[in-house]
Specification:
With about 120 residues, the protein is an all-alpha fold. Helices cover about 80% and strands about 0% of the residues. The chain is built from 5 helices and no strands. The chain is globular. The termini are far apart.
Length: about 120
Amino acid sequence: MKQLIFVFLGGGFGSVLRFIIGKWLNNSETGIPYGTFVANIIGSLLIGIILGLAAKNDTLSQSQTLLLATGFCGGFTTFSTFAYENHVFLKSGDFMSFAIYTVASFVVGFLAVFLGMWLVK
């Protein structure tokens, strides 16, 4: 039960922060979801740092890892939103935005995880 509470609390904080970033950065004029992109990249960097710390000499406890990686990063990152936004791009025929957003999200997201892991070594 304690583990569920850690995931629940972290997820709640992550979701609220993602909502705020989306409201602040998503561009309603162009429809480009900068907020989702930023949340996914920051979340990728954070999960790399968090899991890197957890693996490095057991720096983080299991409870801290659940709160931060599973909960916060899980609530903060936005794959379902990312998938929907790509659906909107495809449905509207905006294949260039679809391609750029998808490739940039994957490439920069992976690089952010690796950077996070590297930073804690």
